[in-house]
Automatic annotation (TrEMBL):
Protein name: 2-hydroxyacid dehydrogenase
Single GO molecular function: D-lactate dehydrogenase (NAD+) activity
Keywords, comma-separated and alphabetical: NAD, Oxidoreductase
SUPFAM superfamilies given in the database record: Formate/glycerate dehydrogenase catalytic domain-like (SSF52283), NAD(P)-binding Rossmann-fold domains (SSF51735)
Domain D-isomer specific 2-hydroxyacid dehydrogenase catalytic: 8-327
Organism: Streptomyces tagetis
Domain D-isomer specific 2-hydroxyacid dehydrogenase NAD-binding: 110-296
Classification via CDD domains: LDH_like_2
InterPro entries the UniProt entry points to: D-isomer_2_OHA_DH_cat_dom, D-isomer_DH_CS, D-isomer_DH_CS1, D-isomer_DH_NAD-bd, D-LDH-like, NAD(P)-bd_dom_sf
Length: 331
């Protein structure tokens, strides 16, 4: 059986080919799965997709009609998949439940430190041999408060780093993490966390109940000099509302590795094109905003774990086994 892998990055391809060797043939494509590319999968019983794949009803129907029976998504999030349609069509859908939490937590901290210490602006200046310090004044994070929304494996890894900086820890989640409590974290209502934290980092999944978790009201409740970091899912933040607050001169810095309308933009070279997304175009112009291209997970360790789990998911499918990674069938 040949596996067709969509949305494979050049750095990722050798890892995928090595992991599948000895199990299945694999054909890697750099195109992402959507309504236009779905017909390519015809004749492939199993395919693998990336985080920005379109697995809505129309795409799933094309896949099923072409003979696809199993989709192994190389990501943890699955908000891009119509699970009801997949079950109706008799498809098996699996994801990667866990991978290195350090990759995302460390990158979230990279964003936080970069906007706090004005690293991008400083780097741009020195490349032009401008070595002035004006406008580069940051602040110590030691002794300040880190508010962490979502304290699972990634949030806990972020908390450990914050603890190492000597920060006070506030948490918000549906359940308290004993590991975070041992660090001295105090769980508080979301409103209190937003209002009192100097640094706010998002580590919750994108679900209907978390869509625009950081909305206009939440943004207004935050301190004017707060730092906001999102390395989870773009839809957690109401970007239009964020732009409005930035226009008002608020926030020390905002670091975003994800964007709610990133599909069709992130992972592509659009440098020679006119960007039609006015919200993103405006967002990038703010000097206190740093936007990266959904790369927090992109370490050799994390990608290796993602690929290894994807191979196991396909092997489980072929053997009729079920694991915690299977989203559909649901029982």
């Amino acid at each position: 059986m040949e596996i067709l892998a969509f949305g494979v990055q050049a750095d990722e391809q050798p890892l995928i080919e090595r992991a599948f060797a000895g199990h299945f043939d694999v054909h890697c494509l750099d195109v992402f799965l959507n309504e236009d590319t779905a017909p390519i999968a015809a004749g492939h019983e199993a395919i693998s997709t990336s985080v920005n794949a379109d697995l809505g009803t129309p795409v799933l129907e094309v896949l099923a009609a072409g003979g696809t029976r199993m989709v192994a998504q190389r990501s943890t999030g699955f908000n891009n998949i119509d699970l009801d349609a997949a079950e109706r069509l008799g498809l098996t859908i699996a994801r990667v439940t866990t991978y290195s939490p350090y990759a995302v937590a460390e990158f979230a901290w990279t964003l936080a430190m970069a906007v706090n210490r004005r690293i991008v602006r400083a780097s741009t200046r020195t490349r032009d041999f401008d070595f002035r310090l004006h406008g580069l004044l940051g602040r110590d994070l030691h002794g300040r408060t880190a508010g962490i929304l979502g304290t699972g494996r990634i949030g806990a890894a972020f908390a450990r780093i914050a603890h190492g900086f000597g920060m006070e820890l506030l948490g918000w989640d549906v359940a308290e993490n004993p590991e975070c409590l041992a660090l001295g974290m105090r769980y508080v209502p979301r409103e209190e966390l937003l209002a009192t934290s100097d640094l706010i980092s998002l580590h919750v999944p994108l679900l209907p109940e978390t869509l625009h978790l950081i909305d206009a009201a939440a943004l207004k409740s935050m301190r004017d000099d707060a730092i906001l970091v999102n390395s989870s899912r773009g839809g957690l933040i109401d970007t239009a509302a964020l732009v409005g607050e930035l226009r008002a001169g608020r926030f020390t810095g905002v670091g975003l590795d994800v964007y709610e309308a990133e599909a069709g933009l992130f992972f592509f070279d659009r440098s020679l094109e006119a960007i039609e997304d006015d919200t993103l175009a405006r967002l990038i112009t703010f000097p206190n905003v740093l936007v990266t291209s959904h790369q927090a997970y992109y370490t050799r360790e994390a990608v290796g774990q993602i690929v290894d789990t994807t191979v196991r998911n396909v092997l489980d499918y072929r053997a009729g086994r079920r694991s915690e990674n299977v989203l559909v069938p649901r029982s």
